[in-house]
# Entry
Amino acid sequence: MNIKYLLAGFFLSFTLWSCQESASDSNEDLATKAVEQEFQYQIDQFADLKILRYKIDGWDDLTLKEQKLVYYLTQAGLAGRDIMWAQNYRHNLAIRAALENIYTTYSGDKSTDNWKAFEVYLKRVWFSNGIHHHYSNDKLQPGFDAAYLEELMAATNTSLETEAFEVIFNDADAKKVNLSKDADIVLESAINFYGPDVTEAEVEAFYSAIEVDADEPIEVGLNTRLVKENGKLVEQVYKSGGMYGAAIDEIIKWLELAQGVAENENQAKALGLLIEYYKTGSLDTWDDYAVAWVNSTEGNIDWINGFIEVYNDPKGYKGSYETIVEIKDFDMSKKMAVLSKEAQWFEDNSPLMDEHKKDNVTGVSYKTVNVAGEAGDASPSTPIGVNLPNNNWIRQKHGSKSVSLGNIINSYANAGSTGRLKEFAYDSLEIELETEYGQLADKLHTALHEVVGHASGQINPGVGTPKETLKSYKSTIEEGRADLFGLYYLMDPKLQELGLVEDWEKTGMAAYDGYIRNGLVSQLVRLELGADVEEAHMRNRQWVSAWAYEQGQADNVIEKIVKDGKTYYNINDYQKLREIFGRLLRETQRITSEGDYEAAKALVEDYGVKVDQDLHKEVLDRNSKFTAAPYGGFVNPEIVPVMDDNGEITGFEVVQPESFVSQMVDYAKRYSFLK
# Structure
């Protein structure tokens, strides 16, 4: 699961395992930090996006062998870059190739408004790994017309088939993922996990007919595309010699090199199973790999690689390609490991019903790591926290790994400002709390969300998995449940007893202020006026906050205040709000444990989807004075091998890319393995 969201107040864009929030949710509520002037964090801004750099902290402390392992793993990740583009939409690769050919070969007038609009559109497409917005799922709108694109194509000898050309400008395939309760969410989603003529009912019938081991079920459909051939549904498997085989063969090549420099036997075993999985497409092998990977805890290097998060599938079966290569941050990991050790205490003392609590919370490890490279669903919009594996039986029997991406969080903090905080916070006390305690509150919420939130609770015997029972509401309910677990304990003196905070009450107040402010107000800047909330994490932040506001109205727990024409939500009683969060946590766990679809639907649809349009317009108007983009993403540092005369690697240079454009053009040249 990925956390692409937790930087508490507003810059919420970190998104990873079954929980993936993305750092493109930009939290501008962060306090101003002393920016390291010698390092330029932000290198571009366009549309609603800003592009940042990150440092590979800890790189110089690695041995040459460890650096080789990092290099090979990052190359393996980038080798599969095209897969994410193809998964996002069936015409993405053709459209990208055409746009890139125009960009790199056009010699006409580049001072016109049309050309500038073309450049912005291409950069938006690069950022989203396709023609649909990375967060809203809406199709990106070009700021130029079809005639101008035809002119550019003619001038650069560029070709693009008719359907792919027309879809840039028409209303077809308007949503990458359509979760509307009134839609056929498969047929009306442009995501390329299913053939364009496959319906929701057909998907449900196909996968419900597959028998799996009740105790150790595989993640059916995770690495396939479901299509119709001669009127019959069949799965196209992602594997060597199968779908995306050309890119997968490149992934395998680099993983085999990585296996040769593994730090220990457990790492080598896990990499060997990952290679076998890519060769065969076997989901049994994927589970074997996940078990080996979660038990591979020694060494300085770790990785995430595979078809993992299912957020992009409206039915929650298909995994998006994603890779992150990680270097452990030992100092921060030691500080946060205390949460893992105390996981059972948090479970035992939670407000969950006794029958929904786990008797033994297994093996939740939590570390702060530094990213060395990302690709696929993790790039350019990256998570800030990850917890894997997603298969519930593996998590219960073998545990999971939770990581916080420390250098990514630091880059956001150094690139941020306090402008939006001052605009959307109610008073000076709220600003002071966020400034002094906000960053720590966010880090702790991320840790609690990942380490104890996702690991907590159990499903009743005989009840299916949330994917089966809660269906399209599974992701947002799970993310809300983990959020609530973290929120409940952020206002607990236990955190100070464990040495994690110096003032548990003020840290909790900052966390509650930021969550409510974002869930009810500031996250609306990421929506077009009139739009519903559709992204799973945005939905869960809204339904958690809106339900809490409603439940506390009798006691004025959260007060809606309009001052000088501006709307604020001010918390009057933090302890009562904690009790409300506890009740909602208990209910979301009940929904999950019992597979109560109707209750999940009611919670999400009644509180998490619709937006007060007057408030939305007000928020957009208030936000319009800020120039900083609401979403952020990253370029990757370039790890360049240094060779001797025999072609042996003797060292590496780490080079920051000059620009977002230069990296995208370079990636197109080096990692385009699919057509």
